[in-house]
Each structure stands twice: as structure tokens, then as C-alpha cells.
Amino acid sequence: MGAMRPTVLLFDIDGTLVTTGGAGRRSMALAFQALHGRLDACDSFSMSGMTDRAIVRKGLDIIGAHPSSDAISAVIDSYLLHLAQEVPLVDERDYRLHPGMREAVDAALSRPGFAVGLGTGNVRQGARIKLERVRIHDRFSFGGFGCDHEDRVELIRHGAQSGASQLGVPLQECRVVVIGDTPKDVAAAKGIGASCIGVGTGSFTPDALLSCGADYAFPDFTAREALAALLDGR
What GO MF terms are annotated (predicted)? Predict the structure, then answer.
């Protein structure tokens, strides 16, 4: 086997790294209530795999409000204020880091030639709030976020480029791996020619993620094969 190429890992947050006990959805509802008097703006659709700005855009459309850039930003700002209040209130049984994730992230960080970042629809501040609760935010020095681009493919591209820059090599020389729990994570990975490791810790089974094109999929990261796929590409 030849030498491993420089590797950029991009971890999704919700459903992949953590479960937040509904703090994000509640905070979004409270933001819409505060600014538009509607708690139900996002009740009719799943937020799974969506970027924060895309969620707000859809919610504004549903309630008949114009989804201008300023209107979206205003809801995001309110959402972040509510998120900072809601996250600490969630019972520790409902707010958790998924099995094997801390060990997987730390194992990757110990490897030379690995850049470990985030690939998430959360805006940067929302990602920090969610991950600080489980004391893992400091592991991630870069990422692609929902504030970098509303389209998930493009934010993953941004994260991959940031990781390549950290490694000091051109992106085309890197192995890029997206770790996620939804078909949107798989599609975003494939959209930039990256590999994808699916985890069944969200709303989709490993088989469902494989059927969408994931290169590997596991129930969670306690599987020995999951760590091998992450670190060695097998």
C-alpha cells in the first residue's frame, strides 16, 4: 500500500457528532416567534441536513415573509441568542456526544498529515455553542459552515479548501472525507468528489446512507471498521 495522501476530515455536527435534545429546533422556533410572531414557521419540514440560512429562508417563505438577506440574518441572530440559552437547559441524558466520536477525532488529530475540521450547516457561532457543551469544539481549527455558503456542496468545498491550506498542499492532492448522518451529507461529499462515511446516529440507517452513495456507513463510531475507514481509507 502506498503512502496515505494528505487527508482532510470534515465532520457534520447534528446527528453525527452530537444530539442536542431539540435545542436547535426550539431556538429556531423562538426566533421566528420573537421576530414574526410565529412559532410554527418550521413545523412542516425536516431540518435534517439543511443549512441554517436555508432553514430560515424556507420558514420565511412558509409564513409569507420576504426572505431577504437582512431578514434571514435577523432570524439567525435571534436564533443564536436563544440557542445560547436553550443548550444549557437540555438534560444531559438528551444532550450527548455520540459513541466513539471523541476517540475518532482524537485519533485523527494524532496522525501526521491529517487536518480535522467541521462540515456543517450550522453557522460558526451555532457550531461553537453546540460543541462547547460536550467539550469538543476546541478540536476543530477550521471548517465549512452555514455562514460560508447556503448551499451545502459549496460550504463543504470551502471546508475542504481550508483543510488543504492548513496542510500546506493543493486541494487536488488531498484525500477529503465527509462524515455525516444524512443523504445531504453524502450528496455534498460527492458534489466535490470527496469520500463519505455515513453514521446511523441520526434519522437514517447505515443501509439508507449506503444506498445514497456513502462509501462506508456504520451504526456509530464504536465499530473498529469505522476508525479504519476514517484513518486508513479502508
Answer: phosphoglycolate phosphatase activity
